[in-house]
Write a structure and sequence with these properties.
alpha+beta; seven-stranded mixed beta sheet; 27% helix; globular; SBP_5_dom; ABC-type dipeptide transport system, periplasmic component; peptide transmembrane transporter activity; SBP_5_CS; signal
């Protein structure tokens, strides 16, 4: 514990690394770029937004106490200038940078930090990230509607924030770097109400200058951002309503700089084998799992035998071929690169006969009818059709509902609405590199709430208790023990089959030839696209 505290104390003295240190070329001055997506953005409110499209934009609009060195999962202080942790790991004291201002001109103070995190936890916000802050003292009272604030956050002066935890939390510094911990100005949030997500005010590298619903979002450089030489571009425009094939063609013609939806599988081999492949493709591993969420509160999916049968019905090898083999079949929620992944776990084998037998045992020898929701962006409808065919082989008739990402997310976060969801297009990519992130928001009881991302509406209090036990192991000497405990949580969870883990996919981004910087800022492990770090070559 002492070694960990010494190491963390040293981290508290590190200044935020200027992004210029990562540059391999000279960034062009005054550059603006164009990014495309098929679907519109639902919200830019950091307490509510939680999909892979808006995640990167929210990251760049707001600041947090902690941040990551670009392209890595290495934590550094950001809005915080320094921090200290008590030997028992139960109190964190942060000193804020002086002179940091919101884009409306008001200085950021400690009370803003307290308000912002309390807002993320408050059930009235209906945000999906409350559970991340479960270790803070007073969490149960606020999340349960018995208090208006968190007793475990204090702001003794404008420059100091103190967090008091009810238990040690090995992930707490990571939690303070995720979007839900973004700092917002109370007076603007209260004045805008539900419109704050369309009119965000933060202290990040960019500000939102214009948003034409269904057409575009325009972001401009924040001239007062506190990190030196950041961002590298003067602005970026996100064009929405753009089919991925059209976006890719425009990128090849120099009209688009980043095709946000990636390279459609139908064009991947052509692009990969083309003369420009090295200049426009960024391909890398990510902490991702694509899965089918099975709503455990909807009949007949509330029967574990039915869910197990659905797991056995899916031919995952065939589905990976739909994405040109840019994925490997999955058998558990954790991706292979994540600590805690159990390489010896076999999961549910593809077995049509056994699946049919389980359905018969559950009282459905002739199957049943249900619905499968999916993103309407290619290749997700085709994957949904493959799943539909697999389910039909055991007598389950699944109607496909292909919708915009925001609509799928809304259906998943509404109890009883979506029986099954293919997560592709919003598939789970780690917010930070820790197994807890694959549990709390998407499989834990805290995520099974209105607006949450636990689309299986699965709640196992025994597993929740083991998850808390694992996250309380903040001593690095217990790292292996903690990973093993987390691994057992996920493999034991699969006995209840709230998910069909389908594949772990590599991320492939298409960027124009003029874009510069290392590939890992285009597939950033904590941002997806790091708008703060990307640039146009001179």
């Amino acid at each position: 514990m002492t070694h960990w505290l010494q190491r963390t104390a040293l981290a508290g003295l590190i200044t935020l690394t200027p992004l210029a240190a990562l540059a391999q070329e000279t960034p062009a001055k005054g550059a603006n770029i164009v990014v495309t997506y098929k679907d519109d953005i639902a919200t830019l409110d950091p307490a509510i937004g939680y999909d892979w499209q808006n995640w990167s934009m929210i990251k760049s609009l707001f600041s947090r106490l902690m941040e990551y060195t670009p392209g890595t999962a290495d934590l550094v202080p950001s809005l915080a200038e320094s921090f200290e942790i008590t030997p028992d790991g139960l109190a964190y004291t942060f000193k804020l940078r002086k002179g940091v201002k919101f884009s409306n001109g008001r200085e950021v103070v400690a009370a803003d930090v307290k308000y912002s995190i309390e807002r993320a936890v408050n059930p009235k916000t209906q945000g999906p990230g409350a559970g991340f802050f479960g270790a803070i003292a007073g969490f149960d009272d606020l999340s349960g509607g018995k208090a208006e604030g968190l007793s475990g956050i204090e702001a003794p002066d404008d420059d100091t924030v103190v967090f008091k935890l009810g238990r040690p939390d090995a992930t707490f510094l990571h939690v303070l770097a995720i979007n839900f911990a973004s700092i917002v100005p109370k007076e603007v949030v209260e004045a805008e109400g539900q419109d704050f997500g369309k009119k965000p005010v933060g202290s990040g590298a960019f500000v939102l200058k214009d948003w034409v619903i269904g057409q575009k979002l325009v972001f401009e450089k924040n001239p007062n951002f506190y990190v030196a030489d950041t961002p590298k571009i003067d602005g970026f425009t996100v064009e929405v309503g753009q089919e991925p094939l059209v976006a890719l063609l425009r990128l090849q013609q120099g009209e688009v700089d980043i095709a946000g939806d990636g390279i459609p599988p139908s064009k991947f081999l052509e692009i990969k084998n083309g003369p420009d492949a090295a200049d426009i493709i960024v391909d890398g591993e990510q902490l991702q799992t694509g899965y089918v969420a099975i709503n455990t509160r909807v009949k007949p999916l509330d029967d574990v035998k039915v869910r197990q049968a659905l797991n056995m019905a899916v031919n995952k090898e065939r589905i990976t071929r739909i994405v040109n083999g840019r994925a490997t079949p999955a058998n558990q929620p954790l991706p292979p690169l994540m600590p805690g992944y159990d390489k010896d776990f076999k999961g549910y084998a593809y077995d049509i006969d056994k699946a049919k037998a389980l359905l018969a045992e559950a009282g459905y020898p002739d199957g049943f009818e249900t619905a499968l929701y999916a993103s309407s962006t290619d290749p997700n409808p085709r994957i949904a059709q493959a799943l539909q065919q697999d389910f039909a082989a055991i007598g389950v008739k699944a109607e496909i509902k292909a919708l915009a990402n925001a609509n799928v997310i809304a259906a998943g976060g509404t109890e009883g609405e979506a029986p099954m969801i293919w997560s592709g297009g919003m598939a789970w990519i780690a917010d930070f590199p820790d197994p807890s992130n694959f549990y709390g928001p998407i499989l834990g009881c805290a995520g099974a709430v209105q607006g949450g991302w636990n689309w299986a509406w699965y709640c196992n209090k025994d597993l929740d208790a083991r998850a808390i036990e694992a996250d309380s192991m903040s001593d690095p000497a217990k790292k292996d023990e903690r990973a093993k405990l987390w691994g057992s949580v996920f493999t034991d969870l699969m006995a209840d089959a709230p998910w069909i883990p389908v594949f772990n996919e590599r991320r492939v981004v298409a960027k124009s030839k003029r874009m510069g910087g290392p590939g890992n800022i285009y597939i950033d492990p904590t941002r997806v696209i790091n708008y703060d770090a990307i640039y146009v070559k001179q």
